[in-house]
Amino acid sequence: MQGSLMLDIDGTWLTAEDRAILRHPEVAGLILFARNIEDPRQVRDLTASIRAIRPDLLLAVDQEGGRVQRLRNGFVRLPAMRALADNPNAEELAALCGWVMATEVLAVGLDLSFAPVLDLDHQRSAVVGTRSFEGDPLRATALAGAFIQGMNNAGMAATGKHFPGHGWAEADSHVAIPVDERSLEQIRAVDLQPFARLSQQLAAVMPAHVIYPQVDSQPAGFSRRWLQEILRGELGFKGVIFSDDLSMAGAHVVGDAASRIEAAMVAGCDMGLVCNDRASAELALSALQRLKVAPPQGLSRMRRQAYPGIEYKQDPRWSQAISRLREAHLIV
């Protein structure tokens, strides 16, 4: 079985305990949260200290724009993606947002932001809401595709989330177990469209902690039906599958952290995220060691393809992008 673990740390620098756990080969990624971030220089120092221990480690963050933006002090405050849709030059602006976001994330030594959100805004899910590009699947696909192109132009691979769509289920999977009662045909016709149409542009996909009972009794991230038959089989997706955070309430249906990461790997996830709970991360690590997992294929595609230096703001492309976003009143 292939599989690996992405975990987090508590502070703005590595402790001896952090250094010890990061040396385990089953740990293949680390995600930063707002508590780990002070300013660009501190993040660069932190990522350098991590790479000194494990140069192969995949370093991630959630930097979507809007309210989901961990890098703030010294970084561009991007709009929520829903703010782009009503602009006459929405696709151009989406591409610029993708490029600006990726450039800043790469410049501080990180590999990727888990973006873009491909969920549709059905005006039902508060946890999705303005994180979505649009409610119309074709319009959302066009805007997300432009955002991905901007990310790629900066040197960052894209991760589409939350497969097959979290926009209809009303509950927040961080604190509850959302359920989407629609049929597979209904989901295919609407929410699955951005994933299907962009499947070859996505380097990775993150499934939702949502149960779709007409398709499978398990949440999508623990479902071979969703991950193997539909995502891999029907959509022909060949990239990396990241679980959403296995500490979230929506993942608790399958038991403790060891049971969750094993269920995610069996279903087809390549990397399981266990965040904000070091004891659970250690339990998940022990499970992967017991299972004797092999490193998953394809993770190298997620590593940064460009290395913008700290002087990236001197690049004329940067000035032009910032000017265009300001003209559209998307940033200040």
Automatic annotation (TrEMBL):
Residues 15-291 form the Glycoside hydrolase family 3 N-terminal domain. Keywords: Cell cycle, Cell division, Cell shape, Cell wall biogenesis/degradation, Cytoplasm, Glycosidase, Hydrolase, Peptidoglycan synthesis. Gene3D superfamilies: Glycoside hydrolase, family 3, N-terminal domain. Pathway: Cell wall biogenesis; peptidoglycan recycling. GO terms for molecular function: beta-N-acetylhexosaminidase activity. InterPro entries: Beta_hexosaminidase_bac, GH, Glyco_hydro_3_AS, Glyco_hydro_3_N, Glyco_hydro_3_N_sf, NagZ_Beta-hexosaminidase. PROSITE patterns: GLYCOSYL_HYDROL_F3. The active site is at 174 (proton donor/acceptor), 244 (nucleophile). SUPFAM superfamilies: (Trans)glycosidases. It catalyses: Hydrolysis of terminal non-reducing N-acetyl-D-hexosamine residues in N-acetyl-beta-D-hexosaminides. The record marks 172 as: Important for catalytic activity. Its EC number is 3.2.1.52. It is an enzyme of class 3 (hydrolase). Plays a role in peptidoglycan recycling by cleaving the terminal beta-1,4-linked N-acetylglucosamine (GlcNAc) from peptide-linked peptidoglycan fragments, giving rise to free GlcNAc, anhydro-N-acetylmuramic acid and anhydro-N-acetylmuramic acid-linked peptides. This is Beta-hexosaminidase. It comes from Ectopseudomonas mendocina. The lineage of its organism: Bacteria, Pseudomonadati, Pseudomonadota, Gammaproteobacteria, Pseudomonadales. The gene is nagZ.
